[in-house]
């Protein structure tokens, strides 16, 4: 049953406060990339691709592991108003998001399989309606799944290199109500919000965010964190189910 909506805050378009937006993911959408995925979460859309470079990152030379790095960009009309292409800007937000994506996706990979190599995960926002960084983590995971599956299918790997399934979700407080997977209007109205990165087993990888107005109590923060972790598990179950369908191979 859908929870009643407060007139003070944005409506949820038929979903209750603890239900994420519908998510769909399709693998193998880019014929030129060895791994790719198109993810739609509500009205937010992400295209993620994986590229393998046959040389180590400078700081990984001589190490037993390879490296994974991520890049994030938003197309000019991903938002309601045209934004200049981010490649032409010194954009601190973009670099912050890229570092988050890299840390999150590395947490899921056993990079010993890619010694002296570098994985690049490019996440491009096609349409933005809130939650682009968490949706990019989900799309990046799906693209890596596609990439690794292709290596297995081709006999280039015999063991599965994804050590754990890592996903993410946003969670916020609108008044005293906890909501998961905030869209843009909810994000603007929230008095606190977190981006929770966790595994499908409920282990926390990273938490980013905080209060927008005043301060949070310890109990409020714990409630946000536990709700977000549970929501990540729900979303990852659905994404894992969809990734089991082999597309484009």
From TrEMBL:
GO biological process, one term: rRNA catabolic process
Organism expressing this protein natively: Deinococcus arcticus
NCBIfam families: RNasePH
Domain Exoribonuclease phosphorolytic: 21-147, 166-229
Reactions performed catalytically: tRNA(n+1) + phosphate = tRNA(n) + a ribonucleoside 5'-diphosphate
PANTHER family the UniProt entry points to: EXOSOME COMPLEX COMPONENT, EXOSOME COMPLEX COMPONENT RRP41
InterPro entries for the chain: ExoRNase_PH_dom1 (IPR001247), ExoRNase_PH_dom2 (IPR015847), ExoRNase_PH_dom2_sf (IPR036345), PNPase/RNase_PH_dom_sf (IPR027408), Ribosomal_Su5_D2-typ_SF (IPR020568), RNase_PH (IPR050080), RNase_PH_bac-type (IPR002381), RNase_PH_CS (IPR018336)
Keyword Magnesium attributed: no
Domain of life assignment: Bacteria
Self-association and partners: Homohexameric ring arranged as a trimer of dimers.
Entry EC no(s): 2.7.7.56
Task of the protein: Phosphorolytic 3'-5' exoribonuclease that plays an important role in tRNA 3'-end maturation. Removes nucleotide residues following the 3'-CCA terminus of tRNAs; can also add nucleotides to the ends of RNA molecules by using nucleoside diphosphates as substrates, but this may not be physiologically important. Probably plays a role in initiation of 16S rRNA degradation (leading to ribosome degradation) during starvation.
The name this protein goes by in its record: Ribonuclease PH
HAMAP family xrefs: RNase_PH
One example GO MF annotation: tRNA nucleotidyltransferase activity
């Amino acid at each position: 049953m859908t929870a009643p909506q407060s007139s003070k805050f944005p409506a949820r378009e038929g979903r209750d406060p603890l239900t994420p937006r519908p998510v769909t993911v399709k693998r193998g959408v880019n014929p030129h990339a060895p791994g790719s995925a198109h993810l739609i979460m509500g009205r937010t859309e992400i295209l993620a691709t994986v590229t393998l470079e046959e040389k180590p990152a400078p700081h990984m030379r001589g190490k037993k592991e390879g490296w994974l790095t991520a890049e994030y960009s938003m197309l000019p009309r991903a938002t309601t108003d045209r934004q200049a292409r981010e490649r032409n800007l010194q954009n601190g937000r973009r670099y912050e998001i890229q570092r988050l994506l890299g840390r999150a996706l590395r947490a899921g990979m056993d990079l010993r399989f890619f010694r002296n190599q570098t994985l690049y995960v490019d996440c491009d926002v096609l349409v933005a309606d809130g939650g682009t960084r968490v949706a990019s983590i989900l799309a990046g995971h799906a693209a890596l799944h596609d990439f690794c599956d292709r290596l297995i299918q081709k006999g280039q790997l015999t063991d599965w290199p994804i050590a754990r399934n890592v996903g993410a979700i946003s969670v916020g407080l609108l008044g005293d109500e906890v909501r998961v997977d905030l869209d843009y209007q909810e994000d603007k109205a929230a008095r606190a919000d977190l981006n929770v990165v966790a595994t499908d087993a409920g282990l926390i990888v990273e938490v980013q965010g905080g209060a927008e107005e005043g301060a949070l109590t310890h109990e409020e923060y714990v409630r946000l964190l536990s709700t977000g972790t549970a929501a990540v598990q729900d979303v990852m179950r659905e994404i894992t189910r969809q990734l089991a369908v082999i597309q484009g191979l």
